[in-house]
Amino acid sequence: MSEAPRARLAKALAAHHPLIYVLAQEERRLEHVLAALAAERYGAPRPITAWTGTRGFTVEGRVVEPACEPLAALRHLLESAEPGFYLLKDFPLLLAADPRLVRALRDLYEALAERDVFVFLSCPQLVLPDALARHVFMVDLGMPDEAELAAELAAVLARHPPPAALPQGWIARCAAAMKGMTVDEAGHLARRLVAEGKLDLDACLAEVREEKGAALMREACLKFIPSGVDIARVGGLENLKEWVLSRRAFFTGEANTAGVPLPSGVLFMGVSGCGKSMAAKLVAGAWGLPLVRLDMNLVLSGAYGAPEFAFDRSLRTAEAIAPVVLWIDEMENSFGYDTETRGGGNNQNVFASFLTWMQEKPAGVFVVATANRIEKLPAEVIRKGRFDQLFFLDLPGDEERASILEIHLRAAGGDPAAFNLKALAALTRGWSGAEIEQGVQAAVVHAWQEGRAFTERDVMWSASRIVPLSRTMEEQIKQLRFWSQERATPASRKPAA
Q: Which residue, 287, 242, 231, 239, is CA-closest to 393?
């Protein structure tokens, strides 16, 4: 497990805090941790005495004291508890129903001051009356680390051996991808993968991403994007591709990156339709990470509580499922700074929280932000230290347009060799990648309406009927290019035509 929660539990024992409140999602995992600490404290293995309101006190599943009533359970601890660890499961949830339990816990706190008895109150959420705030020692067990997940995977594989030996590093790679899952969730997934024979590493990692996405259904402001973009299916953007691939090992575990700071985030700005959203998917696809989009409209709507609360909860959820790519689309709109396109002003509290979090966030959350009008954003957002790199995605050049055309022609079922890509690239000069895709799709529809396969003439026909954004928004694009000249790194290797 993570050393911080275990170290904090050890501090509670060393300071002889008799009442210890543990925020824990997994009781089985907590019992294993307490058993290890008990063995260290008493010099030999010692079972944990657990209590539930349905069975009373049990040791290794055997009932030793049928005191199911919470007040009777505390009285038992007060009068006859032997030295050791006592785990009261879900006990904090009972405190609001009976104020006498608060008084009884305070009495227990005083009575156990000189006895070698430690009472752990476990609950998945924090439910603590003010009257007890000074009497309990707080510990958040958190989520399991890679070592715990790897141990669970190894245990599952030992009980359910796969038909063939797994490649070296399989457990480590899967455990790293499963960070943010509970031990139980990882165990269930591993058993399913063995039963279904899905033990190829790429297939396993895809299943892990899908499971993490399913977990996000509980968080309304976060949306799981089910699939990334294959970097081989992206035309142009060579500088961006090179940057992404050079940092792939940080998240795939393919190389030892110990001691090297992990990438924190990247900001994509540029002309609308030139691939900023696709670039976010490209990062997730290249690194094999789940892609999660933070819907700031829902955060600021108030439908999920105060915006500050909804935003903080979304960030905590992203941290819990890390490693993950967190996508914030159209930042100038998300925080209300582009007042020309949105009616309201900005939310300073949410924006301040975002800046602080970007500075202090855990390394496993990689932020991808996009902006169409980056000049609207305050300087604090784009300074170094919050984003590793600022890329400008411009209109594609001649070679890039030919590459984009080839990709979309093949995706539409055509043979690129049958098309004059050089002529079509010249015809679509000034077009964005999205406009090229739309042009090919329109050509396919036109040919279908005439009952034949689409040809180069259909592409030319559709091209003649599309007015590119570079013509309708010429002044705005010029201004954006001028702003980016000395402030951003071009995503493309060559300047756009």
A: 239
Q: Which two tokens stand for residue 306?
A: 């105060």
Q: Which two tokens stand for residue 452?
A: 């034949």
Q: Are residues 20 and 137 in contact, defined by beta-carbon separation less than 8 angstroms?
A: yes
Strands (E), 130-283: 137-140, 222-225, 265-270
Distance CA 275, CA 158 (A): 46
Q: Supply the mean pLDDT for the chain.
A: 86
- Reported pTM: 0.71
Contact predicate 181/212, CB 8 Å:
yes
Class of domain 398-466 as given by CATH:
mainly alpha
Kind and range of the H or E element at 325?
A: strand 324-328
Side chain identity, residue 270: G
Q: How wide is the angle at C-alpha 405 spanned by C-alphas 404 and 406, nearest 5°?
A: 90
Cβ 148 vs Cβ 176: under 8 Å? no
Topology of the domain covering 224-393: Rossmann fold (3.40.50)
pLDDT per residue over 184-209, tens digit each?
999 999 999 999 988 888 888 888 88
- Report angle CA 482, 245, 177 to the nearest 5 degrees: 120
Q: Under a CB-based contact definition with an 8 Å cutoff, are residues 492 and 236 in contact?
A: yes
Q: Where are the alpha helices (DSSP H) in 288-416?
A: 296-301, 307-320, 331-334, 348-360, 379-382, 398-411
- Are the beta carbons of 257 and 250 closer than 8 angstroms? yes
CB contact at 8 A, 172 and 53: no
Reported as a pLDDT band with limits 50, 70 and 90, residue 496 is: very low
CATH topology of domain 3-140: Rossmann fold (3.40.50)
CB contact set of 407 (below 8 Å; sequence gap of 6+): 233, 234, 235
